[in-house]
Amino acid sequence: MADGLLNFIERLFSKYRDQKPEIYAQPDYVARHSINRLSIMKQFDIEDLSVAAAYKSYPEKQRNKLLALRQLIFETADTIGNVTLTETLKWGEPSYNASSKAGTPIRLAPSKEKGVCGLFVHCQTSLVDEFRDKYPQAFQYSGTRALLFAPDDKLIKPELREFITAALTYHRRKSSATKS
């Protein structure tokens, strides 16, 4: 799967750069993904060349894990009502935002710990602490900002989907809680 995705990314570079160079020269170009809710297992294309380049720059084992996490983010967003996902770079790393500021951004990147990659959220949210309390053994946690994964770690999908959903709806849930 990872080799096929890497080949796909490389084809995207040449295809889109050659067809629409004026778009990719713009620094504020953001790839917006309209998610097809009828699809069971859809491959979510990387439309922004800068995002594809960021993934391509990572070591292979970390890149494969990060691309699997990316796929899971899009699949999970597809199950959340009234959410459109935006993929862009923040601090040179792939970042995923829910529409209408419903959630907190999710970033995917190698961690400072050698060989480990992370799913990062804003450090001032309570997400990591909530999940550390709820699932103390499910993930390797880093402070208040990240879930860390070694390249050979198996992704615990139900708990990870729950975390991604909580991140993509964080502000929506918090504002609902304060109104109650």
Notes on the protein architecture:
By secondary structure, the protein is an alpha+beta fold. The protein has one domain. It is built from seven helices and seven strands. It has a seven-stranded antiparallel beta sheet with strand order 1-2-3-4-5-7-6. A hairpin with a 3-residue loop joins strand 6 and strand 7. Helix 1 runs antiparallel to helix 3 and helix 4 crosses helix 6. The longest helix has 20 residues. The chain starts with a helix and ends with a helix.
Radius of gyration: 16 Å
By DSSP (H or I, 4+ residues per run), the number of helices equals 7
Q: Low-confidence parts, pLDDT < 50 over ≥5 residues?
A: 23-41
Overall number of structural domains: 1
Oligomer: single chain
Kindly report the average pLDDT value.
81
- Structural class per helix/strand content? alpha+beta
**Shape verdict:** globular
Total beta strand runs: 7
For the biggest β-sheet, the strand order reads 1-2-3-4-5-7-6
> Percent range for helical residues?
40-55%
Distance between the termini: 45 Å
Largest sheet: 7 strands, antiparallel
Main traits of this protein?
alpha+beta, 7-stranded antiparallel beta sheet, 7 helices, 7 strands, 45% helix, globular
Q: Helices and strands in order, then pairings?
A:
Layout: H1 2-19, H2 21-24, E1 31-33, H3 49-57, H4 60-79, E2 85-90, E3 93-98, E4 106-110, E5 117-120, H5 127-134, E6 140-142, E7 146-149, H6 157-168, H7 170-179
Antiparallel strand pairs: 1-2, 2-3, 3-4, 4-5, 5-7, 6-7
